[in-house]
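In this notation, each integer encodes one residue's backbone shape. One such record reads:

___
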Amino acid sequence: MSTQGNTSRLDQIRAVAERLFRDKGYLATSMRDIADEMHMKGGGSLYAHIKGKEDLLWSIANEATDAFFAALETACAVESNPHTRLRAAIIAHLLVITEHLGAAAVYFDEWRHLTEPRRSQFMARRDAYEQQFQALLEACMKAGDCRAADARLATLHLLSAMNAMRHWYKPYGRLSAQQVAESLAEMLLRGL
């Protein structure tokens, strides 16, 4: 077997699992469901590519986590004032959701089904991401560009508002992903 063929098939399996986990939920999706979507006979041939369903969940959750961190790092690398950096971070976060809609939904909703130690590892990375967002917001508050009585509460509100996009965003809508992200960033920042 060639590595390229395995990678391609694994990517296909991950894409199907991502969609099914998003649409049906992790618990309601069986290996048989994934095999059927892949037009494989039985679930046995799936195990030639993966160890189990949780490995798919872990892989998808990590893909989304990596995408969020990479986007935030790029946004924070911009030499500018705290307000502009926070705006860039909001837009970057929203664009990750639009570009990785299925993986983002798994990241937000299905990670709870990970078992230890993966669950704790995921939660630690998620918390670190939230802390970076909070630091951006605190810098914006310190500069006088944002007002909030409680930085932690404001951070959770901001992230929750952005993450809700996974429920309603449609890639074929009347506005581009960039336009949606920029409009939401302006609304959210005005609210702060």
Remarks:
- The chain has a mean pLDDT of 92.
- The two ends are 55 Å apart (CA to CA).
- The longest helix spans residues 118-142.
- Residues 17 and 34 are 6 Å apart (CA to CA).
